[in-house]
């Protein structure tokens, strides 16, 4: 490679935005590096400018008959329960510390005002009290799991 070709290669690398080019021939090796940061292009398209996309229609789903009625009875059973939901975003804890027993377990009777769990939000531990009386049927969240606002935590059979 002669000096003219090297100069052209340097100009090409600087114009192209490539950060590094290495060329190796039998008795010649050259590496050209630029000091420029990688170019990142981001664009924002206003919502009005986006054309709606037409997606191919999916084949129709045929209903499947359920024998024995287990699915229907399970759905009917859930409708008689009261759902206790999270009043905030945070981390769900079933007990006040790892070595303490859970506030409530499946089968426990609860009354209005009884602490049923703790939700940690921004390093504050908030005791969540039951707003209903009944029996805990199901715990819907794992211990130490993140929860969202209005996420179901417990199913309670009212008394």
Automatic annotation (TrEMBL):
GO cellular component annotations, sorted alphabetically? acetyl-CoA carboxylase complex
For this chain, one GO molecular function annotation is: acetyl-CoA carboxylase activity
Note the PROSITE patterns from the entry: BIOTINYL_LIPOYL
An example Gene Ontology biological process: fatty acid biosynthetic process
Q: Which PANTHER family match?
A: OXALOACETATE DECARBOXYLASE ALPHA CHAIN (PTHR45266)
Q: Which residues form the Lipoyl-binding domain?
A: 81-157
The keyword Lipid metabolism is assigned to this record: yes
Q: Which organism is it from?
A: Pedobacter cryoconitis
Q: Which InterPro entries match?
A: AcCoA_biotinCC, Biotin_Carboxyl_Carrier/Decarb, Biotin_lipoyl, Single_hybrid_motif
The protein here is known as Biotin carboxyl carrier protein of acetyl-CoA carboxylase
**Has UniProt tagged this entry with the keyword Lipoprotein?**
no
**Keywords recorded for this protein, A-Z:** Biotin, Fatty acid biosynthesis, Fatty acid metabolism, Lipid biosynthesis, Lipid metabolism
What pathway, per the record? Answer: Lipid metabolism; fatty acid biosynthesis
Gene3D superfamilies in alphabetical order: 2.40.50.100
Source domain of life is Bacteria
Q: What does this protein do?
A: This protein is a component of the acetyl coenzyme A carboxylase complex; first, biotin carboxylase catalyzes the carboxylation of the carrier protein and then the transcarboxylase transfers the carboxyl group to form malonyl-CoA.
